[in-house]
Protein backbone atom coordinates (compact mmCIF):
# COMPACT_ATOMS: atom_id res chain seq x y z
CA UNK A 1 0.00 0.00 0.00
CA UNK A 2 1.43 3.41 -0.90
CA UNK A 3 2.39 5.59 2.00
CA UNK A 4 3.75 9.00 2.88
CA UNK A 5 7.35 8.77 4.10
CA UNK A 6 9.05 11.29 6.35
CA UNK A 7 12.70 11.62 7.24
CA UNK A 8 14.28 11.82 9.71
CA UNK A 9 12.05 10.26 12.35
CA UNK A 10 13.75 12.33 15.04
CA UNK A 11 15.86 15.47 14.70
CA UNK A 12 17.64 17.29 17.47
CA UNK A 13 18.90 20.78 16.71
CA UNK A 14 20.33 23.70 18.59
CA UNK A 15 18.31 26.85 19.01
CA UNK A 16 18.99 29.26 16.16
CA UNK A 17 19.89 26.56 13.66
CA UNK A 18 18.03 25.82 10.46
CA UNK A 19 16.36 22.46 9.91
CA UNK A 20 14.84 20.83 6.86
CA UNK A 21 12.19 18.18 7.32
CA UNK A 22 11.65 15.91 4.36
CA UNK A 23 8.60 14.13 3.04
CA UNK A 24 7.91 11.90 0.08
CA UNK A 25 4.18 12.08 -0.66
CA UNK A 26 2.25 9.35 -2.41
CA UNK A 27 3.27 9.48 -6.04
CA UNK A 28 -0.03 10.35 -7.76
CA UNK A 29 -1.10 12.87 -5.12
CA UNK A 30 -1.29 16.53 -6.01
CA UNK A 31 -1.93 18.24 -2.67
CA UNK A 32 0.58 18.39 0.14
CA UNK A 33 0.33 19.56 3.72
CA UNK A 34 2.34 20.12 6.85
CA UNK A 35 0.81 19.87 10.31
CA UNK A 36 2.38 20.30 13.73
CA UNK A 37 1.58 18.71 17.07
CA UNK A 38 3.21 20.14 20.18
CA UNK A 39 3.37 17.47 22.87
CA UNK A 40 0.04 17.11 24.61
CA UNK A 41 -1.73 19.54 22.29
CA UNK A 42 -3.94 19.25 19.27
CA UNK A 43 -2.70 18.81 15.73
CA UNK A 44 -2.41 22.19 14.01
CA UNK A 45 -2.42 23.01 10.32
CA UNK A 46 0.63 24.82 8.98
CA UNK A 47 0.42 24.97 5.20
CA UNK A 48 -1.03 23.40 2.09
CA UNK A 49 0.73 23.26 -1.28
CA UNK A 50 -0.64 22.66 -4.74
CA UNK A 51 0.68 23.22 -8.24
CA UNK A 52 4.05 24.34 -6.91
CA UNK A 53 2.70 27.07 -4.73
CA UNK A 54 1.22 27.60 -1.29
CA UNK A 55 -2.57 27.38 -1.46
CA UNK A 56 -3.26 28.10 2.19
CA UNK A 57 -1.25 28.84 5.31
CA UNK A 58 -2.09 29.33 8.95
CA UNK A 59 -1.05 32.14 11.24
CA UNK A 60 1.64 29.84 12.62
CA UNK A 61 3.34 29.67 9.23
CA UNK A 62 5.28 32.91 9.35
CA UNK A 63 8.51 34.00 7.66
CA UNK A 64 10.44 31.49 9.74
CA UNK A 65 8.91 28.69 7.71
CA UNK A 66 9.10 27.80 4.03
CA UNK A 67 8.09 24.85 1.89
CA UNK A 68 9.46 23.52 -1.34
CA UNK A 69 9.00 20.70 -3.80
CA UNK A 70 12.51 20.65 -5.16
CA UNK A 71 12.48 17.66 -7.46
CA UNK A 72 8.97 16.42 -8.16
CA UNK A 73 9.01 13.77 -5.46
CA UNK A 74 10.17 15.38 -2.22
CA UNK A 75 8.24 17.98 -0.24
CA UNK A 76 10.24 19.84 2.37
CA UNK A 77 9.57 22.09 5.33
CA UNK A 78 12.39 24.45 6.26
CA UNK A 79 12.45 26.11 9.65
CA UNK A 80 14.94 28.94 9.94
CA UNK A 81 16.47 30.05 13.22
CA UNK A 82 14.70 27.44 15.33
CA UNK A 83 13.27 28.33 18.72
CA UNK A 84 12.57 26.15 21.73
CA UNK A 85 8.85 26.42 21.05
CA UNK A 86 9.32 24.86 17.62
CA UNK A 87 9.83 21.51 19.36
CA UNK A 88 6.97 19.36 18.15
CA UNK A 89 5.95 16.45 15.99
CA UNK A 90 5.69 17.54 12.37
CA UNK A 91 3.40 15.59 10.09
CA UNK A 92 3.40 15.65 6.33
CA UNK A 93 0.23 14.63 4.50
CA UNK A 94 -0.88 14.31 0.91
CA UNK A 95 -4.15 13.87 -0.91
CA UNK A 96 -5.07 13.09 -4.46
CA UNK A 97 -7.77 15.67 -5.08
CA UNK A 98 -7.74 18.16 -2.24
CA UNK A 99 -10.70 18.26 0.11
CA UNK A 100 -12.60 15.67 -1.91
CA UNK A 101 -10.25 12.91 -0.97
CA UNK A 102 -8.62 11.47 2.11
CA UNK A 103 -5.43 13.00 3.44
CA UNK A 104 -2.80 10.35 4.13
CA UNK A 105 -0.34 11.18 6.87
CA UNK A 106 3.28 10.25 7.29
CA UNK A 107 4.63 8.84 10.52
CA UNK A 108 5.92 12.23 11.60
CA UNK A 109 9.27 13.82 12.45
CA UNK A 110 9.90 14.62 16.07
CA UNK A 111 11.83 17.87 16.23
CA UNK A 112 13.60 18.71 19.47
CA UNK A 113 15.18 22.14 19.80
CA UNK A 114 17.71 22.42 22.61
CA UNK B 1 -13.35 30.05 11.74
CA UNK B 2 -14.29 26.50 12.46
CA UNK B 3 -13.62 24.90 15.82
CA UNK B 4 -13.74 21.28 16.93
CA UNK B 5 -14.17 20.25 20.56
CA UNK B 6 -13.65 16.89 22.19
CA UNK B 7 -14.74 17.12 25.79
CA UNK B 8 -13.46 13.72 26.90
CA UNK B 9 -9.67 13.78 27.36
CA UNK B 10 -9.68 10.10 28.37
CA UNK B 11 -12.02 7.16 27.99
CA UNK B 12 -11.70 3.50 28.85
CA UNK B 13 -13.58 0.43 27.74
CA UNK B 14 -13.47 -3.28 28.44
CA UNK B 15 -12.39 -5.50 25.61
CA UNK B 16 -15.41 -6.61 23.50
CA UNK B 17 -17.57 -3.81 24.87
CA UNK B 18 -18.82 -0.70 23.07
CA UNK B 19 -17.59 2.82 23.62
CA UNK B 20 -18.70 6.18 22.23
CA UNK B 21 -16.37 9.15 21.80
CA UNK B 22 -17.93 12.60 21.58
CA UNK B 23 -17.15 15.49 19.27
CA UNK B 24 -18.86 18.80 18.64
CA UNK B 25 -17.94 21.43 16.12
CA UNK B 26 -18.85 24.94 15.19
CA UNK B 27 -19.16 26.21 11.65
CA UNK B 28 -21.25 28.57 9.58
CA UNK B 29 -20.83 26.41 6.49
CA UNK B 30 -23.50 24.03 5.29
CA UNK B 31 -21.31 21.61 3.40
CA UNK B 32 -18.21 20.03 4.86
CA UNK B 33 -16.53 16.77 5.82
CA UNK B 34 -15.98 15.28 9.23
CA UNK B 35 -13.40 12.67 10.12
CA UNK B 36 -12.18 10.53 12.94
CA UNK B 37 -8.45 9.84 12.97
CA UNK B 38 -6.65 7.33 15.17
CA UNK B 39 -3.16 8.01 16.49
CA UNK B 40 -1.59 4.91 18.05
CA UNK B 41 1.66 5.07 20.07
CA UNK B 42 3.57 5.08 16.78
CA UNK B 43 2.12 8.63 16.37
CA UNK B 44 1.02 8.10 12.75
CA UNK B 45 -2.41 9.53 11.97
CA UNK B 46 -4.72 6.91 10.50
CA UNK B 47 -8.13 7.68 9.05
CA UNK B 48 -10.86 5.69 10.78
CA UNK B 49 -14.05 7.01 9.22
CA UNK B 50 -15.36 9.92 7.17
CA UNK B 51 -18.76 11.61 6.91
CA UNK B 52 -19.98 14.02 4.26
CA UNK B 53 -22.29 16.63 5.76
CA UNK B 54 -24.75 16.46 2.86
CA UNK B 55 -25.36 12.77 3.53
CA UNK B 56 -28.01 12.03 6.12
CA UNK B 57 -26.95 8.42 6.48
CA UNK B 58 -24.39 7.80 9.18
CA UNK B 59 -21.09 6.38 7.97
CA UNK B 60 -20.10 2.88 9.02
CA UNK B 61 -16.77 1.11 8.66
CA UNK B 62 -16.78 -2.39 10.11
CA UNK B 63 -16.80 -1.98 13.94
CA UNK B 64 -16.72 1.80 13.69
CA UNK B 65 -19.79 3.95 13.14
CA UNK B 66 -20.73 7.55 13.66
CA UNK B 67 -23.76 9.40 14.94
CA UNK B 68 -23.89 12.57 12.89
CA UNK B 69 -26.36 15.17 14.15
CA UNK B 70 -25.99 18.12 11.80
CA UNK B 71 -28.40 20.46 13.56
CA UNK B 72 -26.70 19.85 16.87
CA UNK B 73 -23.25 19.96 15.25
CA UNK B 74 -22.36 16.71 16.89
CA UNK B 75 -20.28 13.86 15.47
CA UNK B 76 -19.68 10.95 17.81
CA UNK B 77 -17.73 7.78 17.10
CA UNK B 78 -18.96 4.41 18.29
CA UNK B 79 -16.53 1.52 18.52
CA UNK B 80 -18.21 -1.85 18.86
CA UNK B 81 -16.56 -5.06 20.08
CA UNK B 82 -13.52 -3.08 21.25
CA UNK B 83 -10.16 -4.71 20.71
CA UNK B 84 -6.81 -4.13 22.40
CA UNK B 85 -5.52 -2.69 19.14
CA UNK B 86 -8.11 0.07 19.30
CA UNK B 87 -6.20 1.70 22.15
CA UNK B 88 -5.00 5.04 20.81
CA UNK B 89 -5.61 8.75 20.76
CA UNK B 90 -8.66 9.56 18.64
CA UNK B 91 -9.01 12.92 16.93
CA UNK B 92 -12.15 14.38 15.45
CA UNK B 93 -11.48 16.66 12.48
CA UNK B 94 -13.37 19.07 10.23
CA UNK B 95 -12.67 19.95 6.63
CA UNK B 96 -14.46 22.60 4.64
CA UNK B 97 -15.81 21.70 1.24
CA UNK B 98 -15.05 25.19 0.03
CA UNK B 99 -11.98 25.19 -2.13
CA UNK B 100 -12.31 21.47 -2.58
CA UNK B 101 -10.21 21.63 -5.69
CA UNK B 102 -7.40 23.24 -3.76
CA UNK B 103 -5.76 22.27 -0.52
CA UNK B 104 -8.17 22.50 2.36
CA UNK B 105 -7.00 22.30 5.95
CA UNK B 106 -8.14 19.82 8.54
CA UNK B 107 -9.13 21.37 11.88
CA UNK B 108 -8.61 18.93 14.72
CA UNK B 109 -10.10 18.56 18.17
CA UNK B 110 -8.04 18.09 21.30
CA UNK B 111 -8.18 14.31 21.13
CA UNK B 112 -9.52 11.54 23.36
CA UNK B 113 -7.14 8.94 24.73
CA UNK B 114 -8.87 5.56 24.61
CA UNK B 115 -7.70 2.73 26.84
CA UNK B 116 -8.94 -0.80 26.21
CA UNK B 117 -8.82 -3.04 29.26
CA UNK B 118 -8.43 -6.80 28.80
Describe the structure.
The complex is a heterodimer of chains A (114) and B (118). Chain A is mainly β. In chain A, 0% of the residues lie in helices and 50% in strands. Chain A has strands at 5-7, 10-13, 19-24, 31-37, 43-50, 53-57, 65-68, 75-79, 88-95, 104-105, 109-113. The radius of gyration of chain A is 13 Å and the shape is globular. Helices cover 0% and strands 52% of the residues of chain B. Chain B contains no helices and twelve strands. Chain B has strands at 3-5, 10-14, 19-21, 24-26, 32-39, 46-52, 60-61, 64-69, 74-79, 88-96, 106-108, 112-117. In chain B, strands 2, 5, 6, 10, 11 and 12 form a six-stranded mixed β-sheet that branches. A four-stranded antiparallel β-sheet of chain B has the order 3-9-8-7, with no helix packed on it. In chain B, strands 1-4 form a two-stranded antiparallel sheet. The radius of gyration of chain B is 14 Å and the shape is globular. The interface between A and B is medium-sized, with 31 and 27 residues.
Measured by residues with Cβ under 8 Å of the partner chain's Cβ, the largest interface is: A-B, 31 and 27 residues
Gross morphology of chain A is globular
Q: Please give the count of helices of chain A.
A: 0
Order of helices and strands of chain B: EEEEEEEEEEEE
Give a short overview:
Chain A has 114 residues and is mainly beta. Chain A contains no helices and eleven strands.
Secondary-structure blueprint of this entry?
The complex is a heterodimer of chains A (114) and B (118).
Chain A: E1 5-7, E2 10-13, E3 19-24, E4 31-37, E5 43-50, E6 53-57, E7 65-68, E8 75-79, E9 88-95, E10 104-105, E11 109-113
Parallel strand pairs in A: 2-11
Antiparallel strand pairs in A: 1-3, 3-8, 4-5, 4-9, 5-6, 7-8, 9-10, 9-11
Chain B: E1 3-5, E2 10-14, E3 19-21, E4 24-26, E5 32-39, E6 46-52, E7 60-61, E8 64-69, E9 74-79, E10 88-96, E11 106-108, E12 112-117
Parallel strand pairs in B: 2-12
Antiparallel strand pairs in B: 1-4, 3-9, 5-6, 5-10, 7-8, 8-9, 10-11, 10-12
Amino acid sequence: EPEVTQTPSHQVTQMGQEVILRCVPISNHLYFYWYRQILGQKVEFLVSFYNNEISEKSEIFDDQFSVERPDGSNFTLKIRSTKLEDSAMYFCASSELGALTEAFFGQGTRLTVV
Amino acid sequence: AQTVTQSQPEMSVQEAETVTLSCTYDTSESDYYLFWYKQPPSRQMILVIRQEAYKQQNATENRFSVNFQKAAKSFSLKISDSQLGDAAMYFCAYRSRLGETSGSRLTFGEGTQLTVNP
